[in-house]
Amino acid sequence: MKSKKITIQKDTSKNIFDELSGEWWNETGNFEALHAFNPLRIKFILNSVGKSIKSLNILDVGCGGGILCEPLARLGANVTGIDENKKAILVAKEHAKKMNLKINYIEGNITDINLHKKFDIITCMEVLEHVQSVDLLINGLKEYLKNGGFFIGSTINQTIISYLAAIFFAEEVLKIVPKNTHQWVKFVKPNKLKRELLRNDFSNISFQGVFYNFLKKKWNYVNTEKINYLFSSKLE
User: Fold this and answer.
1) Which of 2, 39, 48, 227 could anchor a disulfide with 232, C-beta 3.0 to 4.6 Å?
2) CB of 67 within 8 A of CB of 56?
3) pLDDT tens-digit readout, 26-79
4) Alpha-carbon span 222 to 211, nearest angstrom
5) Which of 31-45, 110-124, 221-235 has the lowest mean pLDDT?
6) pTM metric for this prediction
7) Is residue 47 one of the residues assigned to a domain?
8) 4 lies in a domain?
9) What residues make up the domain containing 61?
10) Strand order across the beta sheet in which 228-235 lies
């Protein structure tokens, strides 16, 4: 099985992640917000699936240094992580080995690699806002998802308040995110994402707004998707 071509934008964020390759497992460093996000992400995944993920096959697309892969593996899932960033994959492999976790890490683009299997769950966290075509990505990924499988992820809405929060304050003022990590034009409105999911045969689509308190360094669920949001869907 070979995925259709997925065009991923080679933007400045790739160079940023190269430079920060040694920071992935520094929980008070540049990826502190991602580490803090994990409890909410795991809770959302479990609630969306509605059962234990033990022994389920999970593919984490854009896995970076393995921040999400490791807690999924600890819950008993069979985890595969894929990322184009060579340095991130090297870090992920080394840390998993150190933690005595069996995780299958793959360096490369999902387009160019035949995974030879389908998954029960595909996660795609903080990735959609970095790709050139959300539709092509979803269309390609669903080829690796079982019927009845779940596509779950998180991204950033395209609003004025999201620009202020994710770029102006996070990157320019507070500097908790490296400068030029995000491009506002690539942020994804929930309605647009819903249309693409429906067009690609997904149903049971749900959204959950989340908010990062910069002062408390903590994420919370909120009743709005105006900035960051989690999404869940099921392949029919």
Assistant:
1) 48
2) no
3) 998 888 999 999 999 999 999 999 999 999 999 999 999 999 999 999 999 999
4) 6
5) 110-124
6) 0.91
7) yes
8) no
9) 12-235
10) 104-107, 78-83, 57-61, 119-125, 145-156, 228-235, 202-213, 218-222
